[in-house]
Amino acid sequence: MEQQSMVSFAVLGPLEARDAAGTPIRLRGPKHRAVLARLLMAQGRVVPIETLIDDLWEVAPPRATGAIRTFVGDLRRALEPERPPRAASGLLVTQGGGYALKATPDAVDVTRFERAVAEARRREPGGALDLLQAALSEWRGPAYADFSAEQWARAERARLAELRLGAVEARADALLALGRHAEAIPDLDAHVTDNPWREGAWHQLALALYRSGRQKDALDVVRRARERLADELGLDPGEDLARLESDILAHAPSLGAPTRPPDAASTLWAQAAESHARGAVLGERARLRSTVDLLRSLALAGGESLEAAQQQRIATIRAAEDLGDPHLTARVIGAYDVPAIWSRSDYPELAAQVVAAAERTLAALPQADTDAARARLLATIAVESRGSSSDAPRAAASEAVRIARQLDNPPLLAFALNGLFMQTFHRTGLAAERDAIGRELIPLASRHDQPAHELLGRLIRLQSRCAVGDVEGADAQARAADELADRYDSPLIGVFTTWYRALRLVLTGRPAPEVAEAYRAAAPLLDSSGMPGMHRGMLPLALLSVRIQHGRPLPEPGTTGWGPYTPWVEPLLLAEHGNPDAARAALSTLDDPPRDHLAEALWSLVARAASTVGDDAVLGRACEALAPARNELAGAQSGLLTVDPVDRARAIGRHRAPAAPRQTCGGLAQSER
């Protein structure tokens, strides 16, 4: 029995045997290793020779029994080199018609692992953590890693893998219980990436992030869990995971306190949200309607709250549809009248789902007594179809405005005008139309106590004044917007007004370094805005515009991340850096830019590239697209940037016709060929 304690075995990874000094024992060929692994798997029980033969060969050779005996004899000599000749083995024993490996429990890593995990369940968190750390340190890779293709190993490999996953999650539970939230995050993140079906682990990771003061990251994890469960496994999240998102938003006490506790206002919000979640007094329909009001308030807060509201909105619409009441669904969809200022969708997949639900609900509503509901659905379609090349959303916007005017319903009209604004990007040169919408929206919203839509009107007018270089008019709108935002605590407004003040430096002819620094200072506001449709690629595009305005060299192709603007930027960079053939090839397959705030800017870049490489067809296409905007600054409709040269920007801003450039396209200076 002494020899048993001298040899140790490890199968939590590739098979290993070591002597008392810890030196690896050479186990000869693969069949020898398979016999040893099979005996270790039996955990001291006898394995009949017939079983070993069946496991080692698909078709047994004529002398399989003799081969097994040879393998066993070789293993005995390797494992017990000091055993006298013809002495009985105390480790690999013959018993009946088979063999058993009589190793002591502490000599096998599997046994140590299983005992530690079982003991951890009975310990308090500190003791459990120590045991689980030691148990998980036994693993060097998948169990029985050498035998992944063997049928006889599959069940045991799967059993041990499941035990290990449970141990990882038990370790995370212990860390969370001890308040060591940040320590749990790295392993849990890797764990859910490799094992996306482990809903409990997704819950733990989100909880660890939340308690570490990382609410946005926690919400991102819940969304990622939902996407992976649906996309890869075709599963809906369980009740606990589904509820976690709203609990995080509400700072539910059940989650435990985050490292950075919410302020007093957040606490009141959390209490109200928790009361809503319990909703004992409210029926299901009333709760759905009030949920939309809650999400609307979240969206107006911007940042991570805006992103969370967008995600929750879809779930609320689906819940309403499930009840089979089109009037309720219309209310749930149409009540989310959060003003939209940017014409590129932040979440296009979600927007498409909202549009589809609105269209289904429109079809289900009876024609009578539903004008207001229909108008809200039409306005929703117009807002959420921003950037569309279809005429249908524009028709929906016009019909929504018509109904709202007919009903003399100011809040409905404000929402419908927002939809109409979103549909004024179907061609270039429509700054005047947008300015008219802003002019109507500001007093309408002000008279009827709708500050969010009044702010929308201010930003629409700010953008339209920038389009024609009217710095004084844009300044007035920016001041009014900032004052109103301070009064109603609307942090998103500062994103737009700060970026406008960087553009203002362009319109007033400030030096390039000063302008570039202003853009870099404004960029972090976009990072935390919760508006990825506006954020992605914006700073690089703004800095490119500064180079163009001041005649500076442009970046080399492939050296900067342009986000969604890449297809329309790269041809110009290729042309400017002496690669005309590649530029022509890129231009030849180029789609029209999206119909949004930056369409004029992107068309201008295309025109410059086409002019540089002599592509008359693409240049003509760009000129035709830009012709209606000949009296506007390309890109300034955004209120963020312009790609027009400084001299043209200043000329338009002084309300004079710009000097004729060497080559023109819609009033935009082009390089000489």
How do you describe this structure in short?
The protein is mainly α and 673 residues long. The chain has 30 helices and 7 strands. The protein folds into 4 domains: 1-174, Winged helix-like DNA-binding domain superfamily/Winged helix DNA-binding domain (Arc Repressor Mutant, subunit A), CATH 1.10.10; 179-257, Tetratricopeptide repeat domain (Serine Threonine Protein Phosphatase 5, Tetratricopeptide repeat, Alpha Horseshoe), CATH 1.25.40.10; 279-423, Tetratricopeptide repeat domain (Serine Threonine Protein Phosphatase 5, Tetratricopeptide repeat, Alpha Horseshoe); 512-669.
Structure description:
The chain has 673 residues and is an all-alpha fold. It has four domains: 1-174, Winged helix-like DNA-binding domain superfamily/Winged helix DNA-binding domain (Arc Repressor Mutant, subunit A, Orthogonal Bundle); 179-257, Serine Threonine Protein Phosphatase 5, Tetratricopeptide repeat; 279-423, Tetratricopeptide repeat domain (Serine Threonine Protein Phosphatase 5, Tetratricopeptide repeat, Alpha Horseshoe), CATH 1.25.40; 512-669. The protein is built from 30 helices and seven strands. The protein has helices at residues 30-41, 49-56, 64-79, 109-120, 125-137, 151-177, 181-194, 199-211, 215-233, 239-249, 264-278, 284-301, 303-322, 326-334, 348-364, 371-384, 392-407, 410-422, 431-447, 451-467, 471-488, 492-507, 512-527, 532-535, 538-549, 566-576, 580-588, 599-613, 616-626, 646-653, and strands at 8-10, 16-18, 47-48, 92-95, 98-101, 664-665, 668-669. It has a three-stranded antiparallel β-sheet with strand order 3-5-4. A two-stranded antiparallel ribbon has the order 1-2. Helix 7 (181-194) packs antiparallel against helix 8 (199-211) and helix 28 (599-613) packs antiparallel against helix 29 (616-626). The relative contact order is 0.05.
